[in-house]
Predict the 3D structure of the following.
Amino acid sequence: MSTLLATALQLATRGVPVLPLRAGKVPFGNCPACRGNACGGRPTMKTAGPCQCPRPCHAWAAATIDPATLTGPAWASAWRQTAAVAYHPGGAGLTVVDLDQAEAIAWARETLPATRTVPTTRGEHWIYQGVMQSANAVRPGVDIKSTMSYARWLGPGTGTMTALPDAVRALVVKKPSPVRPVTVSLPDGGGECRHRTPVYLERGIAMAEQSITETAGGVHTTVYRTFLAVLSVHGRCGCLTEAHAARLFTAAQTRGESSRHCTEAWSNARTALGM
């Protein structure tokens, strides 16, 4: 058994969902059917075919505490290529404030309550007890990793872990337009449904939300491209509902998009696809 797999199993026994990473901090999938994004991967991927997995299995969603999955055939070859172990902070009830430069560390020491810290190659991870929305580039050199995100396991760190403070939660609070009720024009449907299971559609919407909420910049472009990707995959068979559109609009408005811009992006995406 490799040292990294042994570390992953130890973390799993403590209730920390883990996954292997390739070189470059790139995650492996946890099922053979999804290798190479054969099942479609993120909604912005232009690969085809519905996923037959019983649950999402990409990136942060691949993290598990199940030793049978960690040591099973889906990841048997992965551990021989693994460069690092990652974990899903939100799944463990944690939030990681990733400080990537000296200025960010100095800001944290002046602004945030002391907590457990872990040295990284470029800075420090400050780990708090509590869960929140993940976001990149909330300020120079600072990322937040909690729900729908993963972080490298770099050791237990030092110091006493404290409760997630409001000062960290406030980092992802933008000044968005008020979230308004969604009234959108949905495709008429009538095409063949390729989803096969509701899981495929649900994962597509969840990953589209993640794509929008985690974008570091170019929100207008990201929203349009995400709407375009969702409609291109799910828009011709009548499976999309206003509830699905509302989730996407809410994610966009949380990132600062206005209701008008959301409606325009949706309409432009439909026009581009000939719907």
Notes: The chain has nine helices and ten strands.
